[in-house]
Structure formats: C-alpha cells, structure tokens
Amino acid sequence: xxxxxxxxxxxxxxxxxxxxxxxxxxxxxxxxxxxxxxxxxxxxxxxxxxxxxxxxxxxxxxxxxxxxxxxxxxxxxxxxxxxxxxxxxxxxxxxxxxxxxxxxxxxxxxxxxxxxxxxxxxxxxxxxxxxxxxxxxxxxxxxxxxxxxxxxxxxxxxxxxxxxxxxxxxxxxxxxxxxxxxxxxxxxxxxxxxxxxxxxxxxxxxxxxxxxxxxxxxxxxxxxxxxxxxxxxxxxxxxxxxxxxxxxxxxxxxxxxxxxxxxxxxxxxxxxxxxxxxxxxxxxxxxxxxxxxxxxxxxxxxxxxxxxxxxxxxxxxxxxxxxxxxxxxxxxxxxxxxxxxxxxxxxxxxxxxxxxxxxxxxxxxxxxxxxxxxxxxxxxxxxxxxxxxxxxxxxxxxxxxxxxxxxxxxxxxxxxxxxxxxxxxxxxxxxxxxxxxxxxxxxxx
Length: 445
Ligand code: HEM
Description:
This protein has helices at about 15-25, 25-35, 55-65, 80, 90-100, 105-110, 115-125, 140-160, 165-180, 180-185, 200-225, 230-235, 245-260, 265-280, 280-290, 295-300, 305-315, 350, 365-370, 390-410, 415-420, and strands at about 40-45, 45-50, 70, 140, 320-325, 330-335, 335-340, 345, 410-415, 425-430, 430-435, 440-445. By secondary structure, it is of the alpha+beta class. The chain has a single domain (about 15-445), classed as CATH 1.10.630.10. The strands form four sheets. The chain has a five-stranded mixed sheet with strand order 1-2-8-5-3. A hairpin with a 2-residue loop joins strand 6 and strand 7. Helix 8 (about 140-160) packs antiparallel against helix 14 and helix 14 (about 265-280) crosses helix 17. Protoporphyrin IX containing FE binds near residues 260, 265, 268 and 383.
C-alpha cells in the first residue's frame, strides 16, 4: 500500500485569501504556486481546489482516466449554461453529446466556415456611416470583437444568416452583463429580492435569450434539417434509452455554445490587437506577411507569424484561466493521495508564465513560437484530455481569419493612454477573462 501523503492544507484565512484573489486572481495563484506544487486554494461557497501549474502536473491531469474525472458541482457558471450543458455533463451523457457535436466543429465543417468568418468580419467593419468601425470613430475593441465573433458562432450553430445577428446581439449582451461576478461567486445572492435584485435581472435576461433561441428551434422544426449545423445535430439526438433533448436541454446546449463560443475568441482578439498596436515593428512584419498571402482562408490560417501572434496571445491571456476536475475515486496525483470528491485543477495562466518554460514570460514575444516546438503540456489554453475545448479548431481558425481580415481592411490607432501606459490586467469575467479596462482604438484608415 502506498504511503499516504495528504494534500497541502487549504489556507486558513479564507477571507483574506478571498480578498487577495478577488483583487488579482492571476497574481494570487502565481504567488501560491511559487511556494509548492500542487497548492490548495479555498473558494468561499465552493469546494477547495488542489492546483498544479507545471507541465508535468498538466500531463498527469489530462492523462488521468476519464472515468475518474467529472466537472465540479456546484459550479459557479451553472446558472449561465444550465445543468444539461456539455460543460457540466458527465459520464456516458458527456461522451455521447461530445461525439454528437464534434463533427460540426472539425475538419471540413470548420474550413467551410472560412468565407463566413471573413464575411462576418467585413459586415461588421463596413457597417456603414453610423457603424462602430466608421472612420475616426472611437472603437471599444471588446464590444466590436464580440459583435464579429457572435456572428461567427451564430453561423456555426444555426447556419449563415447575416440578419440573425440583429435578433441575438442585444439579448446576448444583456445576458452576459447580467451575470455579474458577485452572482457567479456568491450563490447566496441567487434569490429573489422583490423583483429588483441581480438574480431577477439575470433570470429575466436568460429568459429573453431563451425565447430567441426557442424561436430558432421552432423555425428549424418547421423547415426541417439544414446542412448539418450544430442545431441540426442537436435536434437529431436520440439517446440509447430512446429519449431526445427537451426544449430546456436544447436551450442549455445552445446557450453554452453561443456564450463559450464567442466571449473567449472576442477577448483573445482584443488582446492581440492591443499588443500588435503597442509594437509597430511586429505589426509591420505581420502586415508584410499578410500582403504576400492570397485571399484563400486556408492559406491565411497557415501563415507562421499570424499563427505565432495568436498562440502568444493565448499564452499571455488565456481566456479560461483555470481548468477543474472533481475526482470520483481516490487518485494519486502530483505525489499526493486525493480523496474521492476532491477537486483538482490546472492554473493555466500560471503554467503559461513559468520562466523555466517561457523565458521572459511577461513579454509579448510571438517569435518564441517560431523558435521552438512547444511541448503538449506546456501550453494549454484549450484545456486537455477528454474535456479539451470542443471548439478549439474553430477558435484557432477564426482567430487567424478575423485578425487577418481586420488588419488588412482597416488601420487602427491605439488610445494614447494605452499605447504608452502600463498593460491592463487580465481579470475573470463571466465565462472568459477580459482586460480590466476598455481597450479603445480609433480607426484611421
Ligand atoms: C479562444 C477561444 C477558446 C478558448 C481559449 C477556449 C477554452 C476552453 C477551455 C479551457 C475549456 C475547458 C477544457 C477542459 O476542461 O479541459 C473549454 C471547454 C469548452 N469549450 Fe472552449 N474555448 C474557446 C472557444 C470555444 C468555441 C469557439 C466554442 C464553441 C464552438 C467552445 C465551446 C466549448 C465547450 C462546449 C466546452 C466544454 C467541453 C467539454 O466539457 O467537453 N469554446 N474551452
């Protein structure tokens, strides 16, 4: 029998730790990781987590038997995505749902979205004299990027239809804004307060989004299958026990795809634009690479410097900063015996900041991805193992094509205060991280 090595103790001063983590979550995890690996972190209202931030720890996490790992419950994002969401389902149900959705998010299906992605970007950029991208306008990069990535995920889920963005834009934005950080981290706030509390505002926003989704479901049921988009696949689901998805379950899966599928890419695009416009030499090299390339989406997506810029952005600002699993049976992990029911995880941002893997880790330096081959567990913006992001192929393709289109079609100037000032911090927000302040550009050409 192996000698029992207890997991590191969770810090006692959870309020103080909570405040430190709330002020700078990434920095807090970094300081804890510097002392030991693995390290325990307590979250008020949620189970403590035993984290790793090393490549070896990531390997052990992602190679552990899938049957022993489930998403943690309760889960802070459950009100957003719903219990039937792929993000929260476990076991056979998770395996079945993933196998069902995967064909629409890989290979030829994603490549077929190349033109849709380029068109969606151009529809937003050339949105007319009153549009957010008009010449001379001050552009909020995250809002502008979200409008583009929402169009793309809507096309992947429901098929291409430029008019659909108008139905979803406002309701999705309201829904995301209504799920405030306090609601996410303090379940005690999730209750009615006479019609005026944050929970009521959130559930009303969720209801409005679901109504728009349900209208799309009803339309598809009337018209019959389209061409194998994600909605077709979900509507055709038949489980082994003969059941199909209820409308609530359909809404939860679709909400998950819409939200997970556009917040993450929008925040990455925002950071990429920010860094490129802080470094004119790098931007010019990328523009030269783009000007020498054709207009073929598949060719654009393979450009080495463009690829390196996207990777480096995901390294420095991973939109999903932690990846968690609850173990269903006792597991020896990182040299300690983890009890059934305990939660283990990877601090992705801290792994991406390890100086032993990434020299000068705070620098935005895309060439590091050109200079050497990165090991599979050194870089994990999409998580790993049996729950690795199902949208990773689409996200990678989309990031490259949207960035290529934006940089070719418009000239931007970064707000002077941002161009010269300190770099904004990456902070958790809804399903994805975001810069801690708005990143503004002016369109100059
Ligand atoms: C830059 C963009 C994106 C990043 C960085 C990202 C990151 C992640 C991460 C870290 C996870 C958790 C993986 C794990 O637990 O090991 C995840 C899961 C997931 N992502 Fe993404 N994602 C992105 C884009 C997308 C897109 C475009 C979609 C939709 C098509 C999507 C849908 C999902 C879903 C449904 C899951 C749950 C998968 C499962 O549990 O089986 N994501 N993503």
